[in-house]
Amino acid sequence: MNVWVRLLASRVTDGLLHPVLCAELIADVGPLSADDAYNSREVQINRAAPGLYKTWVSDPGTRDSQEHSMRDLFESVSWARSLS
Question: Checking phi first, is residue 36 left (phi over 0); if not, alpha (psi -120 to 50) or beta?
Fold first, then answer.
């Protein structure tokens, strides 16, 4: 899951993938169980993705700001950030 989230997030950061499509793809995997103690940044994004996508779909008036927030979130786990 960590690699999948980082890969998609990096494509958003590179400008190759729209942040909403990234959120949808991550949400389609489904959230990981909160029962385990593993709570990496990537897992947190996996758990947040369904809400991000649903909010974007249901509130067209704030889509620009939501997309900006998604970009910032995805940038936090991108390869570029990890390797710098």
Answer: beta
CA angle 69, 42, 45 (to 5 degrees): 40
Distance, first Cα to last Cα, the chain: 22
Whole-angstrom Cα distance, residue 46 to residue 1?
Answer: 8
The CA distance from 52 to 9, in Å, is: 14
What pLDDT, in 10s, does the model give residues 59-72?
Answer: 999 999 999 999 99
Q: Which residue has the tokens 């979130």?
A: 73
Q: From CA 64, how far away is CA 70, in angstroms rounded?
A: 10
Question: What is d(CA 65, CA 70) in angstroms, rounded to the nearest whole number?
Answer: 9
Can you give the pTM of this predicted structure? 0.84
